[in-house]
Predict the 3D structure of the following.
Amino acid sequence: MNVVGGTTDVSTYFVLRLSATGVEATTLDVTTFDLQYVRTGTAPVAKVDATALAATDSAHADNKAIEIDATDQPGLYRVDWPDAAFAAGVRQVILTVKCATCFTEHMAVEIDTPVDAQKLGGTAQTGNDVGADVNDILTDTGTDGVVVAAASKTGYSLTTAPPTVAEIQAEMEENGASVLDTLQDRLTDTRSTYLDYLFSIYFGLVSVVAQAQSGAAGTITLTAGASAVTDFYKGQVIVIYTGAGAGQARVVTAYNGSTKVASVSPNWATAPDATSWYVITTFGSAILPTTLSDNIDSIKAKTDNLPTDPADESAIEAAITAAHATTDGKIDAVDNYVDTEVGAVKAVTDKLDTAMELDGAVYRLTENALEQAPSGTGASAATIADAVWDEAQADHVAAGSTGESLDGAGGGGADRENLVL
């Protein structure tokens, strides 16, 4: 905050916060505030207990304070300070507001030195003195090329009444032409230098500034002095800045060094001609390099082979619908087959659940499953036992076998049925 030294009736605004929570302090009793200030290089004045202002827009009253708005501007308080705090002679005053339940707040106020505009060099000046000084300055110095003769300002002293419109017109008629001639000569002399200066700034951006020979929808024939190297300007940006097609910028996609014809993309909205002046920028080669141009040509060659776009999206939708119908039918068939096979497998494995039990980490047949004889149309236990005896007697009678012993016992007259091994 800045005030001019000697300013009176200064009010400031402080935001007070509760020291316990840090939130804005509202509905404080301003009569508990301690007010104090200290000026640069001086002892602090004795603190003063604030008293309450009647309203926020009350006239200034020293060492008074008031809360602004507890709801919409919580924690904001106005404090009025005595004029002595802002007297000239020091550079700064520190204002302090102290409250028992709040953080102590300080505000630094810069005291600006008053300036007497009528004192120049320590001497008091009158209005006529200043006007006379200006009139002296208007006298010809002979160094700027524009002469204002003393006689030409007769009657125009700033210490007198201002000139009339008729007097100003007469002055312009007498001296205006010479002034304009001088300005025109200076502009003529400096124009080429100024243009050279501008182009020196953009030298790193502009490689060619020249006049075209002709142009067409997608080409421009450069000046006869353009590069003889084919594709020398390819990938750079050409800008028409005056003449036919002015204001257009295009990328050079090809350049014929023999004919000086540069092809551009996209085509010109207005074709250039022999009145067109152009600029070719060097930054185009960095932004749109030849390799990028080649890549674009390669992509275009491939996309040119794509079929013609459908008349509308209905063709695409129809193709998607047909493909969906085919694949949907196949997916349904697979789904149905899987459901059938899984059901059959489950029917078998469900039976194992009652025939097996977990023994540690290994499944085994339950005792009940082992005790139950096979059911159904298979051979009975008696049939299986007879078959075992018959097999032993008929086919297993090799020397040393059980069948041979049984057969020998039978031949000796033993009762095979009552034979106990």
